[in-house]
Each structure stands twice: as C-alpha cells, then as structure tokens.
Amino acid sequence: MKFKYYIGALFVFIVLLGLYVYSLSGASFTFMIPFSTQSITLPVAIWFVVPVIVFFIIVIFLEIGGSYRMWRKRTKYKHDYKILLEQIENQLLSKDVPLKQPTMNRYKSLSILLGNLTLDIKEGIALKSGETRLDELIELLGDLKRGEYVNLKKFNPGEKSPFMNQNILNQIHSDEKFATEVLKKSSYDEESKREAFKKLLNCGETKTIKQFIGEIKFNKDLANEMLGMCYANKINFSNDEIAKLCTEVKYSKEDYLHLAQKLKESY
Q1: What is the pTM of this model?
Q2: How many alpha carbons fall within 13 Å on the CB side of residue 84?
Q3: pLDDT tens across 105-128, in order?
Q4: 105 vs 27, 87, 111, 117, CA distance in Å?
Q5: How far apart are alpha carbons 8 and 75 in whole angstroms?
Q6: CA 152, CA 145: separation in Å to the nearest integer?
Q7: 16, 20, 89, 107: which could form a disulfide with 102 (CB 3.0–4.6 Å)?
Q8: Are 14 and 53 a contacting pair, CB within 8 Å?
C-alpha cells in the first residue's frame, strides 16, 4: 500500500473510532501524571484515539528509517555497479588507472576477480547487454579485430592498449595517405612503419618508397617483399643497396642463394 493511502485510511479509522466511542459514552476521564500533582482530563473518546495516534507516529518513523536504509542500499548498488562497468572498460582498453574499490563486499570481491583477468573480445556479433557505452565499445572493438578502422577517441584508450596499435595498423591498410604520414613521423613504432612501408609497396608507390628506405628497420619478411619488387623490375636497387639490405636483416647462406637465383634474370 502506498504511504499516502495508509495515512488516509488511518485518519478515517481514527475519526470513526473517536465518533463511535463518543456515541457510547460522552464522559470524561482524568489521568494523573506520575510523580506530579498535575492531571489531564479529556473525553473518553480522545483517550481511545491517543494510543492509535502514538502507534501511527511510531510506524511513520519506522517507515522512514526503512526507506532510508533501502535508499542507501540502492545508492551503494548503483555506485558499485558503475565502478565495475568502468573497471571492465578500463581493462578492455588496458588503461593504466588506479583501481577503485566498491563499498559492498560482494562487489569488492568481484572487482578483485576481474582485476586478475585479461579481457578480450570474442569473434562474431556481440549480444547487447543494455549498457549503451560498453555495448558500443564492444561493437567497435569487434569491428577493429575484423580489420576495420574505428574511431576510439570517445573512449580515450591508453597508449599501451593492443587495440590502439591494431587500429593504427587497420588505418594503414585502408588509407594510403595515412601510411605515408606514418613514415614521415617519428612518433610511430617500427611495426607501424614497416606496415606503412609494405602498404606503399603493394600500391606500387616506388618513388615514395625510395624516400623512406633509410627510415625503416627492415626484417626478413619486408626485405623479401622489397626485393620481390626488384625481381619484377618494378624498382631498381644497386648492388650496394641490395648488399646493405641483406646484411641488415642477417641473410643466411640459403637466403643469399635464393636471392641470387631470383636476381640473375634482372641483375
């Protein structure tokens, strides 16, 4: 029952009780106050109504106390639930932030358990949880793992996030101009620069490639792709340039033999 209906019903009950008792007896009763010479004289009907009113006041205080306890419990629940959602987001993005502790013991234990895990995104279409922000993040990270470039600016991922690095690689694969920008800037790591260089190789940008050879730390895979352009006569390297590249990636005897077999037709 709603509290206002309870008050209304109690008021009607008090009025009816007082009128009924008064109809039976209109006499008065005198109450002597203990340890005092004072007394209170009231109609009998009022004396019947007073305990009901006192009981009503006690119930009101109990109801208010119970409502306050429920409000505090709900507030703690919402606060701790929000902390857990933030923790899941931070762990997904590998953000290096201090771990907030929930106030409720069960949620505190759950927070510690989550902190001991490494979170990742499953393959396939994710089910919606109803938590809009996390659902959006999970959908974006799923697209990212499928090779798409996504905008993660809203979530401010940490620099150490593997998703952030993967997103840069995805953008390189999908945008030739961005690949060129990566090669121009020193802020990108060697892996990103190699992928950017490979992107330009695949696009046949031989003139642009020549500009950035000195900026790249080659590995065998990239060197093989680079020399493959020589096999196909799509790019010309001098003997010294080829020798320097092979030395840099530490070619073995077998690698040199394979290289000689491939280059004999064009060099």
Answers
A1: 0.68
A2: 20
A3: 888 999 989 988 888 888 887 888
A4: 61, 16, 10, 19
A5: 30
A6: 13
A7: 107
A8: yes
